[in-house]
Specification:
Layout (H helix, E strand, L loop, with lengths): L1 H7 L6 E3 L6 E6 L2 E7 L5 H8 L8 E4 L4 H9 L3 E4 L4 E5 L2 E5 L15 H11 L6 H8 L3 H13 L3 E3 L9 E3 L2 H14 L6 E3 L6 H14 L4 E4 H8 L9 E5 L4 H10 L10 E5 L3 H6 L1 E3 L2 E3 L2 H9 L3 H16 L1
Parallel strand pairs: 3-4, 4-5, 12-13
Antiparallel strand pairs: 1-2, 2-3, 5-6, 6-7, 8-9, 10-13, 11-12, 14-15
Helix pairs in contact: 2-3, 3-13, 4-6, 4-7, 5-6, 7-12, 9-12, 9-13, 12-13
Length: about 325
């Protein structure tokens, strides 16, 4: 917190932090004092919980990196914020700061979050028991890959292992919410493959993707809807679906072009349909059909929504609440 505060104040300014009470500290600077609250990563959910605590609402929220949704919620509540990137929106007596931060450097992805690890976490979040045999059955991973993935999740602190050994031995999820956050970050941090934007007609985009999906189904081509359109089915929040984000079994530019041809579509810059390859084979396997649509597993929909802007992040948190309450 101290480093983040120093980063947005003039060089050499005094910054004294009093004793912490939980994640809260009284901060004294050359420009006056204020109460600061550390919120961790800085996603909308982290900030919303703090803003809802009316009795202890801070004057300044401090995070590693404030997401667009978290920034918007803080400003709407009249609460200043800053983060470790150097970004800040502070409006306090004697202190006005508005600045953008440094671009987010690509974090080195831990080797433990392989495609198999991401797939196993996806299955666990859907309710699969954390045993080798159950993960192998749900995901289609080999016994060796399932074993390695569960071991990685245990080493990362997301699973707790009991004394039993073997394919049927059970682990337990330590914190389902923390596992979802870690999965979402790892899933969207993987290097993106090819993508293609396509023009679609019609006012109802969900009806349009049903029609297109019938063409892919007839060609036995796997596909699944994710993002805002999938959330409109799983946990409606947005009043209007801005576009279609479809994962498809087409890992190369040539196979993406072929998928477009099969559906009688045309590539178009700025088109409302975005086609991307399935990020893992497990995501394809765990996709389901609902309301005449193929839908990606909800953890993947959540992960994709969370990085799609302020309204997308709000819709992601609504979807998470719907699933967790259901």
């Amino acid at each position: 917190m101290e480093r983040a505060i120093r980063a947005v104040l003039p060089t050499g300014a005094r910054v004294d932090l009093g004793a912490f009470e939980g994640q809260v500290a009284n901060v004294v600077t050359d420009f006056g004092g204020f109460t600061a609250r550390w919120v961790g990563e800085g996603w909308l959910r982290n900030v919303a919980d703090v803003l809802a605590d009316q009795g202890r609402r801070p004057l300044v929220i401090v995070a590693r990196r404030m997401s667009p949704g978290a920034q918007a919620a803080s400003v709407a509540a009249g609460v200043s914020w800053l983060d470790e990137s150097g970004a800040a929106e502070i409006a306090l007596p004697g202190l006005l700061i508005s600045r953008s931060g440094r671009p987010d450097p690509k974090r080195p992805r831990t080797q433990r979050w392989t495609g198999s690890t991401i797939g196993a976490a996806e299955a666990l979040l859907l309710g699969t028991r954390p045993t080798v045999s159950e993960v192998e059955r749900a995901t289609g991973l080999s016994a060796g890959s399932a074993t390695t993935a569960l071991a990685a999740l245990t080493a990362l602190g997301h699973l707790r292992s009991d004394a039993a050994r073997g394919r049927g031995s059970a682990r337990q999820i330590v914190d389902r919410g923390r596992l979802l956050d870690a999965y979402a970050e790892a899933a969207t941090a993987r290097e993106a493959g090819p993508s293609l934007r396509v023009g679609v007609s019609g006012r109802d985009l969900l009806d349009e993707v049903r029609r297109i999906g019938d063409q892919w189904d007839a060609a036995k081509l796997g596909w699944a809807l994710t993002g805002a359109a999938a959330a409109a089915v799983l946990g409606p929040y947005l009043t209007e679906v801005p576009g279609l984000d479809v994962l498809i079994d087409a890992p190369t530019p040539a196979t993406l072009d072929a998928a477009v041809d099969r559906a009688g579509l045309r590539p178009m810059e700025g088109g409302r349909l975005l086609l991307r390859p399935f990020p893992t084979v497990v995501t394809a396997r765990l996709s389901t059909r609902e309301s005449g649509l193929r839908l990606a597993p909800w953890p993947r929909v959540y992960a994709d929504l969370r990085i799609s802007g302020v309204r997308g992040e709000e819709a992601a948190e609504h979807l998470r609440d719907v699933v967790e309450s259901g």
